[in-house]
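Suppose you are handed a protein chain with no further information: no name, no annotation, nothing but its sequence. What can you learn? This example shows the usual starting point.
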Amino acid sequence: MLRNLVFVVLLGVAIWGAFISPFGALLAYLWFALFRPLEWIWIDLSALRLSLLFGVVLLARSVAARSWPNVSHRTSILTMVFLLSAILAHINAVSPETSWHWIDYFVRLAIVCMLLITQADSPRRLFLALFVVACSLGFYSVKAGFASLTGGGVRFGDGLAGGLADNNAFALAAVMIMPFFFALTQGIPENWKFQKAFTWIMRISIPLSGFAAVSMFSRSALLAMAAGAFMALIVFVKRRFGTLMLCVLVGGIAAPFVPLPQGYKERVQTIYTYQEVGEESAISRLHFWKVALHMVGDKPLGIGMFNFNATYDKYDFLDGRFGHNRSVHNSHLQVLAEQGFIGFIAWIWLYISSLRTCFRIRRLAMSQPEGTPHARFFWAISGAFAVSMVSFLIGGSFIAMALNEISWITFALVAAMEQVALKTFAGVPVKRRVNPYAALQQPQPTEPSAAATPATPAVSRKGR
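A reasonable first move is to predict its three-dimensional structure. Written in structure tokens, the prediction is:
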């Protein structure tokens, strides 16, 4: 009963926001797509087709306001090239209905992402979009992490519905949104009444989401978390070596008291001992990757979206040793096999372009004069997006989830961030500082003028 009541309240707020403005409709659609409220409540409301309703409202409000999808940004162009590769690969699909289903899904996802690039046109809107994305999915990751931690190391075997139904997919998504929580702590309005409480909730959500990934027994998520932690050390930390040593010390002291799920240590050890113990799950992946290369060698345009499983037996040169209709277990080779070289080039270029944008905006934010509004926020979100993408680049090498919403929404958020940051900092003089972190300091109170105070001897900044 309580879940149904909460659902009605959230749904009412989402519908109200959707009719207020195109951006409100966009946030409502993102919430519904990521939170998946129909899977959360106990009653079946699938017949209402609420997802279609939110989509229609989003398009109607956007058209009425003449807020068109952005098709000129390089991220949008690469997204359309990716879609074109899927259409070309559809010709070779063994299961055309499966290919067409995912083409239809990606068209809708691409439109939403291009609308996001258009409508997230201010720091406040960027913050709100990031908040909805992180908290919609973070609700489940934080809840799972808390349940496992307080339950003494509970293991979860399933994920959410839709594209995150697999435990590995959900665990990787939980890792990908961990840096978003940190970025949200840097964009809170200073005069907000609940600033401290919100900051602490976001900070606590980071380790709880990480523990949720652990409770899913996902080795790919663990590798993604390690890659993300290394990337976070690069983009967020000034004194890296000292921070790394402190983390190792604190982790070593706390590790014996963390209630890991039973058998987790043995599971992790198979990452580097899989050949010794004959771990079929790890060994078979190498074979699936070779099969993917055989596929793209035979079909350079690809075999159709999500057609790897249906095509696997045709190219399996071990005649079913690892089963039939198997997955490629690699997002990057999934794109290469299913959408050919055109889709793969667009996929890799998207990551290279987005990562370059993140570091460009990070440098721009750090080069602003001390106390520049929003400088710290852009420094934080640019770093968070880079950490999230690197996490997926590593973790996604062991699971086929190239069409997950978080990755594509992140591409769109990076593009929107670039446009907003360039507009926000336009005309602000850029200074080259010895300490690049100086621009990220909070604004200092204005000192009294020289005419109002007696002259004092000059004192160096270092001496003070």
